[in-house]
Amino acid sequence: MSQIKILPEILSNKIAAGEVVERPCSVVKELVENSLDAGSTRIIIEIANGGLSLMRVSDNGIGMNHDDALLSLERYATSKIYKDRDLFSINTLGFRGEALPSIASVSKFSLITKDEISEVGTEVFVEGGTIKKVAEIGAPMGTMITARHLFFNTPARRKFLKTVKTEIGHIVETVANIALGWPDVQFKLYHNGKTVKNWYSSPDPFNRVLDVVGNDMRNDLLRIKFEDKFVSGEGWISSRRISRKTSRGIYIYINGRVVRDRGIQHALFEGYAGRLIKGQFPVAVLFIKVPYDQVDVNVHPSKHEVRLAQQKQVHKALIEAVSETLSIADRPKWSAENFSRQKSFFVSEPVARYSKAIKDIPDFSATQKSLWEEKRFSDLRVVGQFHNTYILCESDEELVLIDQHAAHERVLFEHLKKLSMNSKIEVQKLLMPEAIDIGHREAHMLETLIPDLKKLGLEIEPFGGTTFVVKSVPAILADREIKPIILEIAEKMLESGLTQGLEKTIDQCLMLIACHGAIRANQRLLDKQITALLAQLDECENPSHCPHGRPTWISRTLESIEKSFKRIV
Ligand code: ADP
Ligand code: MG
């Protein structure tokens, strides 16, 4: 006799619920996404007891007629895809037809809905997956779905629910995440009868962004936009002044869907490379659009993960856009006075060059860039040195403090990097080769690094066991103690591993060489050293951060200083 049976529908819905309905916030997510798919402009979410006793989502979307209301509760019933081709080009948030039957199988469920054509609305009650009552009811166009006593019939799962506080926390986060992607829809969230949050609809998506990430970020978010053959995107990313300790301030949407995509997050971090120190995270809201047939959203039942056909190109476009946006924003902005000065200088040059520059560059900010770019730091007036560590400068409107060590580190790093690419690092042969003895693991690492270090001007030879002899060093390290530098290089490489690729390994070695070669804090500088440093900073590609990602300068406007002195309010 056959042992295999087809599961009854109620049971298979319960099993599907195990994937779709993990906890109350997953119910909220599915219901709100359905409301969005139904074209709603106002969605009201009412929760009681963290969702454990009640979750209700009401919308003003297209609603359903009597037959569709009943059909919507059947497994695999969906109005969103019809043909198998549709599955590879999905433009709605839902498509699997699993959410409603799953939720209804593990709760006491009711659905009230009316579409535009029906004279009356339909009400359906379901308990643990069994339809208990279907009735006519007076209702406005739209849909209201209520799920009470989640997991009442699956006690094992109910036990896994956390406290009311935790569950409502997840719900608020879920709704905030969705709301961020739909700024022209109003969302209202209530908990135990009290308003938790009202996200008003707004024609300007930036208002919704501030609503979610916090209004105090207003001046610290940079607009980002990009577009190429495979992908377009826009959003906001945090400026150099802001960083977070976790990645929770990062919101990524692909075609309007909230996703947790490690690859895209990683690309975002790559774009910030050299601008954040280890353990710091940016804040970002990114709306990425790819053609619907280039993204597979059917990877996971909760649809949080997606697969991109052109993953590499999408990452590349994002990395470039982020790094470009940051480097434009990082340009020191104190050069207003120089603008007029340099402009007159340019006007007095051969006129042709000036007018060409103007013609090529359509807007004012780009014009500023071409005229100012050359001299920024060296146009500052040097006031002096503070604490033998910071260079104090002024422009007309700003007080600027430069961290002399961080700035010099940046200068040396970029300088060495350029030279190393052409194998032109200046080398100093040691008169007396220096022997150093290091630990076992470090020695092993150092041995593998020998050929690369040689290209950077550090010539080292094994001398048996864990001993090495240093024969030459990069000229900038000529008067430095060499052993700590070599030890640090070996340790750093052990820590990060060599799998990161040659370029990163070389960069890390250069960073260490730059760090050891740079002027220190607590070091008195001569005026001409300061002038030279400022001029060298102007030559840098990224003068605003040291190679580890720390800022090289900070500034305070005259206005903010006057405010502090209560000269102005
Ligand atoms: P899916 O969203 O994957 O299609 P669901 O189980 O979430 O599956 O919903 C089943 C169907 O019920 C949807 O395809 C849609 O036609 C209908 N539906 C669900 N919620 C709503 C709503 N709020 N407004 C209008 N129709 C809805
Ligand atoms: Mg759905």
**Helicity, in percent?**
25-40%
- Count structural domains: 3
| Low-confidence blocks of residues | 336-349, 351-374
Class based on secondary structure composition and strand pairing: alpha+beta
Residue-averaged pLDDT: 86
Find the CATH topology of the largest domain: formyl-coa transferase, domain 3
E-strand count: 22
Radius of gyration: 31 Å
Strand order of the largest sheet: 5-4-3-6-2-1-7-8
Number of helices: 18
* Bound chemical compounds: adenosine-5'-diphosphate, magnesium ion
Quickly list its features:
single chain, 569 residues, alpha+beta, Heat Shock Protein 90, Ribosomal Protein S5, domain 2, formyl-coa transferase, domain 3, 3 domains, 8-stranded mixed beta sheet, 5-stranded mixed beta sheet, 38% helix, 23% strand, elongated, binds adenosine-5'-diphosphate, binds magnesium ion
What does this structure look like?
It is a single chain. The chain has helices at 9-20, 24-37, 66-71, 99-105, 155-158, 164-181, 205-213, 262-271, 311-330, 336-348, 351-360, 364-372, 404-421, 440-455, 483-496, 502-517, 527-539, 558-564; strands spanning 42-48, 54-59, 108-114, 121-127, 130-137, 142-148, 186-191, 194-199, 221-227, 232-238, 250-254, 257-258, 284-289, 295-296, 307-308, 381-386, 390-394, 398-403, 427-437, 459-462, 467-474, 553-557. It is an alpha+beta fold and 569 residues long. The chain folds into 3 domains: 9-199, Heat Shock Protein 90, CATH 3.30.565.10; 205-330, 2-Layer Sandwich (Ribosomal Protein S5, domain 2); 333-569, formyl-coa transferase, domain 3 (2-Layer Sandwich). The protein has an 8-stranded mixed beta sheet with strand order 5-4-3-6-2-1-7-8. A hairpin with a 6-residue loop joins strand 3 (108-114) and strand 4 (121-127). Magnesium ion binds at residues 30, 33-34, 94, 99.
